[in-house]
Amino acid sequence: MEAYWKTPKAKDKSEKARASRLSKRGGLGAHCHRAGSRSYVKVQDVLKANNEDSSFIAVMRKTHQKSDGTFVDEKARLISEKYDEYMLERLAHIESSNADVLTMEPLTIEEKNEIYVKVAEISKQGRVFGVGSLQNEVPMTLDGSPVFTQATEQVETFNVRVTELETKLQRSRDETLLFQKRLETMEKILLSGSAGPSASTPSGGTSTSSQVPMG
């Protein structure tokens, strides 16, 4: 059997199978997790028993993240980073709105779950990545679409705000560049206008030479 997998035909078959696995989920590869035989509901129950965060993001990280912080699944890592980016943007927005006193109410489990669903997105099969058997906790409407409330609306608001800030920043850069070009043009005009004919030095001046006494 070992000799078979060393043949060109077997190697070619193995490479094609590997490429097929990697082509899944937009090149992110096959789904990997660390839950083992435990259901995601059981993982959530353990988090609750330990008085830990039991939201979707916490369950996803618990089942897809190693003890050193690295992820066993690329999609899980991307979703985790995107979730953190939203939370940082939310904090920045609150800080800018409360310049004197920073007041930030902690998010509820429901709000965290709504944000996670928005970040992770719903698949064509109507499932949310990383929550496994907790799918039934995703609030859905009769047509199968997720129910988004205030927390999700905030995500959209922040995304719009970021886009507006980027547009303003680019406009400011363009205006600064235009001002610099105008300033350089004015400097060239001033320099060319102040440069007159150079003063000529008188010629034909007499020079004295020392006489060497004759002996």
TrEMBL record:
Protein name in the entry: Transposase-like protein
Biased composition, class Low complexity, residue ranges: 192-215
Alphabetized InterPro entries for the sequence: Probable_transposase_24
Biased composition (Basic and acidic residues): 9-18
Species per Swiss-Prot/TrEMBL record: Cardamine amara subsp. amara
Taxonomic classification: Eukaryota, Viridiplantae, Streptophyta, Embryophyta, Tracheophyta
Any single Pfam family the record assigns to this protein: Transposase_24
Span list, region Disordered: 1-31, 191-215
